[in-house]
Amino acid sequence: VSICSEDDIRCLESIKDSLDDPHDRFKSSWTFTSKTAGFICGFVGVECWHLDSNEVLNISLTNMGLKGQFPLGIENCLRLTWLNLSNNELSGPIPSNISQILPFGAALDLSFNRFSGNIPKQISNCSFLSTLRLDNNQLTGLIPPELALLNRIKKFSVANNQLYGPVPNFSFSVSSYAGNQGLCGFPLEPCINRPNFRDSFKKGFVIGYAFSIVSVISIFMSYCVPWVHRNERKKQLRPFMLNPILNRRRNKRKHSHQTSQMLHLDLLDEASRETSMLVKLVSRMSYTDLKEATNDFSADNIIGFGQMGTTYKATLSNGCLLAIKRLFDTQKFDEHFITELKTLGTLRHDNLVPLLGFCIESREKLLVYRYMSNGNLYNWLHPSEEGEAKIIEWPLRVKIACGIARGLVWLHQNCNFRVIHLDISSKCILLDQNFKPKISNFGEAMLMKSNNTDWSSSFYMDSEFWEMSFVKEDVYRFGILLLELITGKDPSQLTNSSNTGKLVKIDLSTSSNFYHVIDKSLIGRGFDLDILQILKVACNCVHPNPDRRPAMLEVHKTISAVGKRYGGLKTGSKLTKV
Ligand SMILES: Nc1ncnc2c1ncn2[C@@H]1O[C@H](COP(=O)(O)OP(=O)(O)OP(=O)(O)O)[C@@H](O)[C@H]1O
Fold this sequence. Notes:
GO terms for molecular function: ATP binding; protein kinase activity. This is Probably inactive leucine-rich repeat receptor-like protein kinase At5g48380. The protein is α/β, with parallel strands linked by helices. 35% of the residues lie in helices and 17% in strands. It has a six-stranded mixed sheet, with no helix packed on it. Strands 3-5-7-9-11-12 form a six-stranded parallel sheet, with no helix packed on it. The longest helix has 27 residues, at 230-256. The radius of gyration is 29 Å and the shape is flat. The structure holds adenosine-5'-triphosphate. The site of adenosine-5'-triphosphate (ATP) has 20 residues, from strand 14, strand 15 and strand 16.
């Protein structure tokens, strides 16, 4: 029995001593006579880190009719992460040194008891807390504003107590605070004019918001109202603009190949021929090596599925990590494969995902990229419910936007060639280990070389037509991405014409709906004016008239000026777990 587990045993002994268990729901199972390895792991309500060691992970003594005070001996359960004493008849105060008692606590549930007194502000030092439930007790006084420092908090409730004053500055719904007569502040009624609201900082905060709301409304009025009709206009404009070029690409293939099988073989031939020009930049890799690096394309190594194929994580024998996109064996995607090779294969920039190699063997077509350990931006902005959500704070969002804009400026304005991506979205922005954004998915891209005819998919065309038809399409898509970063809304909500209309109408109808426009996690963190400035840029980018959209150079200049205010960002320093 290690020193650590002796502490844990002492912890459980003292809990047993300090609680009254009138219905014998747990006490009879907690016998300390034989102190063998893991003997406490069979106790009712106790979960261990490992079944053969006496180290307590979780304690859940809920709905047992327990009486007594908060069991202070819990302090000796040194690695306890989850404490649930809900639905009992426990009373007395929540200990003020709660952060010493539960230093690694991820969840504390004391709901439905009779705890009284104030909520200790030291709870804010329990920095791992993601769940804090103190609802349905007899707690009184102010909610300590320091609770807003709990930056991993995901579930929070103090409902049905006797609390008053401003609620902490974090985003939970009204139900978290319901049943307390005197609480105020977003999302409840504003605190202005309430006797308990004496904090002048908070007054300033509210006034600042009022100012921001007015500004947001004027910006939406002046920049975004035409955006409501944008999609209808885009539908009319886009075929006219894109078709001549796209049809040229398609017709060229159609006329030269009679059957689809021939098309397939020809494209692969073409790829083989033309990619031989790329071998200096992009290595041709052997199928056997890639198969080995992915453990025979094992399901365990799948990173995700796209429309074109499945992407695998691969580890080379030297430890180097790769992402391998294995395209579905369909002719439809051959063109995507070749375009990706021709564009991304020739391009090297800090904000583009490096395409390291490719493989064409028999019917297998594989594209090999450097592995981006933080996945795609979309998944960070819209985490799945089950997964652990993390918020990207505003300064990091600006840095990401700035990096993408920088990459697009380079693509649009490079002197040797001009590239348009045509498919910019948060899903194609990959994030490396330092959250540096890398543009990926060049399968729709077009490359124009002004005086070069070597490339069958590069074009020479009137530069104004190129600019208005294609470059400004990238600017539009970047604008949607900026709106996604600001609002946290899914791009489908931003580009669907009916929803877009709804969004703008809601924003203009009542000022309090300001909070629905800006991503909740960004509100009240001191960046309101910067958010407004970037919002203005976003609205310019999605202007229905392509002429009125700015060039990416201008967009990048504004965003980088905002980004400079935040200085250098260290890895992960601007992430908040929730
Ligand atoms: N280099 C990479 N490093 C890490 N993850 C990657 C890399 N390339 C792609 N991924 C991830 O693999 C998954 C599949 O990517 P893929 O590009 O095939 O699909 P997608 O981004 O959903 O686009 P589409 O459906 O338009 O093909 C995505 O989650 C993507 O973020």
